[in-house]
């Protein structure tokens, strides 16, 4: 039997018109607000009556809620409103207890993930003290398209970005465990669909599609006082590279943009702006056009209130005000000598911190670089270490498992210029090779110096081309399977193969926002009096219907035991730092740790609002469901 390849197909479903009305769906065992739900497989048909021998075909992974158990079949509906659609045989559906799914990371710098028939087959490799000796032969067989004992499927070779083309790999079960070397992992049981054999010339298809690959580089530069030398040098790089691109006939394939940021104009009106887009990718393609667009970009005439600037406003503008949809290569380059104003600070214009912006960049497929100028003024203000920590977090890239943070010693203008020249030329050269159908067709780069910006950019370029090819080439018709997968590379245990997300409805996200706000308000009250924080939260729990007598000892009662966070977050494969808090632990925290906890809650709250407002990301898992049942994929890492 040949190895089957899963296809990450978009969730497309045909509308169903056979609707009647019942009461509410059946509750899950032990739950008060979570209803029983199933996902369809390709074998499913929706029948008007349970005894019918035929019915309407239903697309794979349509979500239905169970209204009645009829023995061998379920009476189902598309949502929880009472509307029913018909009957599904139990044999063709899978239970979906946790509304979670798996999203693959880009496979460019790691082994492709294998899906095992049983958990035991996966566990053997997890427990092995020398997994490479077992996995390497498996990868050899994979390259020859041979069957691997115990393996039923494999991750696609090209990367499908779920932010552009949503696909569903539902998580059916999970267990957190540990490799033989002590590294943690999640073993996840997933359902998936498989790809039928493709008879086209794969390599030719890749080469042809790769020729249309385009890249955009947006510089986000600090234009506060003292930054003029770096502003001028960045302008010089853009003009020089624009001429080079034109000479290489790549003007339609590589575009540059520039955004400038300062700080709060409410605090210092003379700063003129917090963040300003001077040129978007594609608006200028030659030296003269760039010169005209950038002629008014100069350093500020007055000082900001803090040494820190609102660099996060500049990054947010790059992510939200630039249309990245035409580009396979997406790069943002931050240039500053100062740290970023914290999202919880009153002078922050975004309310976001590095973690939330990193999640948003990941969502949009954008790589963020940071050129940190280690100037004397930064040293005098003891700012270097704080800024370094912020920007290493902001620029951490899961694909290559490292931060794209590059310090410039003493803020040397010449050294800085060399770095941005190198980066711009490296990206341009990748696009040139892609235009010839080269580069991403072989293996991922294996640079000798993995600390250099050139090797980082080569690895990222390869990954972005894989993502582009995956989107362009798509996948074919499905068949169904389920199996077990590791969320870590089975050899390089520090490399993440996949990211679990929870799919929240609008009501659930709204509830999450409201409760996070209540916890935040109580935490602010609890800085001086810890007992006030938990007293308020106990009152909130009682107002939500909790029995006061069930809330136990006040000092040792954990926040998670109050039942504030909804049942939709229970049993998820993640550990919540907030839910583990009790009054004594909070009281024993120092002021810095308490303030950091509050800051984390504030930035999460702002991120939830941003998700709620982004209409384009809400996905229907059944075309007949009410609009309120649409879901939004929230990474587990941004949950409270």
TrEMBL record:
Residues 1-22 form the signal peptide. InterPro entries: Thr-specific_kinase-like, VWF_A, vWFA_dom_sf. Pfam families: VWA. It comes from the Bacteria. GO terms for cellular component: cytoplasm. Residues 216-427 form the VWFA domain. CDD domains: vWFA. GO terms for molecular function: protein serine/threonine kinase activity. SMART domains: VWA (SM00327). Keywords: Signal. Gene3D superfamilies: von Willebrand factor, type A domain. PANTHER family: ALPHA-PROTEIN KINASE VWKA, DUF659 DOMAIN-CONTAINING PROTEIN. This is von Willebrand factor type A domain-containing protein. It comes from Succinivibrio dextrinosolvens.
